[in-house]
UniProtKB/TrEMBL annotation:
The keyword Transferase applies. Gene3D superfamilies: 3.90.1200.10. The keyword Transport does not apply. It is an enzyme of class 2 (transferase). GO terms for molecular function: ATP binding; kinase activity. Its EC number is 2.7.1.175. This is Maltokinase. It holds the Pfam family Mak_N_cap. Pathway: Glycan biosynthesis; glycogen biosynthesis. GO terms for biological process: glycogen biosynthetic process. Monomer. Belongs to the aminoglycoside phosphotransferase family.
Length: 444
């Protein structure tokens, strides 16, 4: 039998080669130059061996902490793939256990069942989520950001005001990184077994449309516009609940100036890594400048920060928003700051564009399908903004009346996506790039 220390040594020795293949590893854009353990905590010494490890991944000057769960039950020693090891984590939360620097806790009024086995969800994303029966989902944040994770903070705030469009938070795991700051490393929430994510629903609708080449989006059975409008209601209500829970304030001229400056800075940074963006830089800059000149009075508050169709779930009780962590590639202080809710609206609008065009990636040019994709995106974007306007709080108002600012947020998001796709899914780079070409009118 291999002991905890030997296992950890083996895993750490193999990690530099294995990281680039992990969906959750956010540094695929440059080589891993080193991995060193920061904290190693044995959660179970034997049968199954379960060790929590915080590692620091170095990529040249960039150094970032990630968490691993190491075990002896699976060939790759990733204990998140072992049902019994995953079950131990839930039991530790239910028990309110403390092991070394790790504090496991249930939320104050949550009554948790022990003894359930856990399985990783198949659609692995930036983090690793484990599902227990049809009851709970535990998200283990892979890249660790010192401090309370906005996902947990905003879920708690929304629960406190009775928000109906989120999954209830049920527990947490907190650790301590190098500087001694408590850091959220896991969040347990109510699992919605009947949920279908918005991306799956939207892309099914697009597929149905593409299969009926000569019909328009409002003529096919899988029309999504009604759902898009209801999603608009849900997003507006979550914004109103966040405002009720945590307040809002009018943005000062400085804030708008800084927001637009951050867009320009992001553009400068991304174009360095992705020269394909170069032809669009002048048009992007003037769209950002136009937003600065015309922003007028805007209200800022806590927002979702990375809203897209993969972050919304359709359940029998309506649309829910998940994953309030913000963009994984954005500095955490910016993610925790007060921002315009129009940013989230822009995120969903981008997502409709993605859903419409993803089937065309790598396919031969087909005029008919290109026109249908544009029609689908236009119809659903309009339905979503209409729904949002119907339910928006008075401080946010109708996004359609903030055209230039919304366009700038959309383009800024598309620039972020260029960086994200370059680092994670290079074959998808054409999706945000062709959107930028369309929106700025600079040709594809
Ligand atoms: N409460 C929930 N009920 C059902 N499924 C969920 C729930 N929360 C998340 N999921 C599923 O897990 C996936 C990943 O969750 P998410 O919070 O977006 O993690 P990540 O930060 O890794 O992107 C989602 O796309 C969704 O399919
Ligand atoms: O869900 P995450 O927090 O991991 O968000 C990251 O990954 C997303 C992709 O999984 C990425 O979203 C982009 O692709 C989506 C389709 O897969 C599309 O619906 C979104 O509009 C588009 O932004 C997201 O940007 C990234 O932060």
């Amino acid at each position: 039998m291999t002991g905890p220390n030997e296992l950890v040594d083996k895993v750490l020795a193999e990690l530099p080669d294995q990281l680039p293949a992990q969906r959750w590893f956010g540094g695929k854009d440059r080589p891993v130059t080193g991995v060193r353990p920061l904290r190693t905590t044995v959660l179970n010494a034997a049968d199954p061996v379960l060790v929590h490890v915080v590692v620091e991944v170095a990529q040249g000057d960039r150094r970032e902490p990630y968490q691993l769960l190491v075990g002896d039950r699976t060939d790759d020693h990733d204990a998140t793939h072992d049902a019994e090891s995953a079950g131990l984590l839930l039991d530790l939360i239910a028990d309110g256990a403390r092991v070394d620097h790790l504090a496991f806790a249930a939320e104050p009024d949550a009554e948790l069942h022990r003894g359930l086995r856990g399985r990783p969800i198949t659609s692995e994303q930036s983090n690793t989520s484990l599902v227990y029966g049809s009851q709970y989902i535990l998200k283990l944040f892979r890249k660790l950001t010192p401090g309370d994770n906005p996902d947990l903070v905003l879920h708690r705030a929304l629960t406190a005001v009775g928000c109906e469009h989120i999954a209830r938070p049920l527990g947490s795991i907190t650790g301590t990184l190098g500087d001694g700051r408590p850091t959220t490393i896991g969040m347990l929430a109510q699992f919605l077994p009947d949920a279908v994510d918005g991306w799956a629903m939207a892309t099914t609708s697009v597929r149905d449309l593409m299969a009926e080449g000569d019909l328009h989006p409002d003529e096919v059975g899988g029309d999504f516009a009604g759902e898009a409008q209801r999603l608009g209601h849900a997003v507006a209500r979550v914004h109103a609940d966040l405002e009720r829970a945590l307040g809002s304030e009018p943005a000062a001229d400085d804030d708008i100036g800084q927001t637009v400056q951050a867009m320009r800075d992001r553009l400068d940074a991304v174009v360095e890594d992705v020269p394909d963006l170069l032809p669009y830089v002048p048009a992007l800059r003037s769209a950002f400048d136009a937003a600065a000149d015309t922003a007028g009075a805007i209200s800022i508050q806590h927002i979702h920060g990375d809203l897209h169709l993969g972050q919304v779930l359709r359940t029998v009780q309506g649309w829910l928003l998940i994953d309030f962590e913000g963009e994984p590639g954005t500095p955490v202080d910016e993610r925790r700051s007060l921002r315009s809710p129009l940013r989230d609206v822009a995120g969903v609008l981008r997502s409709f564009d993605y859903a419409a065009h993803q089937l065309l990636v790598g396919a031969a040019e087909d005029h008919q399908l290109t026109v249908r994709a544009l029609e689908w995106a236009r119809r659903n974007r309009a339905a979503f903004t209409e729904g949002y306007a119907e339910a928006a709080s008075s401080s946010v108002g109708d996004p359609r009346e903030r055209g230039r600012l919304l366009r700038a947020f959309e383009l800024d998001k598309a620039v972020y996506e260029v960086a994200y796709e370059h680092a994670n899914r290079p074959e998808w780079l054409t999706v945000p790039l062709s959107s930028i070409a369309r929106i700025t009118g600079e040709g594809a």
